[in-house]
Amino acid sequence: MKYRFVFLFLLCSLFSVLFPASTEAYLVRYKEQYYRLFHLHLNKYPDESMENIYWLERALEAPFANPLFALAHIENEVEWEKYRNLFMMHINIKLVEQHMFLGNKYNKRHAYFYNAPWRDLVLDSIDTAEVAFRAALYYWEEALIWAERLEDRRFRWINLRRVQFWEDEAFRIHNGSLNYARTINRELDLLQSVRERFEAMNDDGSY
């Protein structure tokens, strides 16, 4: 057994010589850097949504990078202003989506009688889902504020092609085809209905 540890020690030593660690740490400081840490997950587990929410919230708080390092090609101050409004709108939309993913993981869409023995746990899960959905509603309202600023006529003929998807989001908000408030409120109404059914349920699942 001791020879195994000696071998592992020598192997690690060899790798540290052949592949030395970089002495330059990557400092994350700007909105664009935090945004790049955000990524979509296939299964959307709660921990993964929480990770994305963390990076996106840091992106909201951080300063913008120099326009030279923006995610779109910026040539003048008006384009720079539109880019910042688009960025903030898009980040808030992503926060809406991540909170909705999180809420759906805890949501209970039906009050099955056979879940009566775990009623308290189910109600706790419903409470968690409601917190997530209400946070999503808050970020949607924030997104609308930034989208409203994009209605400025100075931006009308400016199209930032590298962030065309953000432009599309703003267009869909303005024409009403993107309306997360409608979806979130529908989920909250359903959530309350299921909560009331569980609260009225007897221990054997009857009413």
Structure, described:
With 207 residues, this protein is mainly α. The protein has one domain (29-200). 65% of the residues lie in helices and 0% in strands. The protein has seven helices and no strands. Helix 2 runs antiparallel to helix 3, helix 3 runs antiparallel to helix 4 (77-106) and helix 4 (77-106) packs across helix 6. The longest helix is centred in the middle third of the chain and has 31 residues, at 119-149. The chain is elongated, with a radius of gyration of 24 Å. It starts with a helix and ends in a 7-residue tail after the last helix.
List the helices and strands and how they pair.
Layout: H1 2-18, H2 31-37, H3 46-61, H4 77-106, H5 119-149, H6 164-175, H7 180-200
Helix pairs in contact: 2-3, 3-4, 4-5, 4-6, 5-7
Write a brief caption for the model:
It is built from seven helices and no strands.
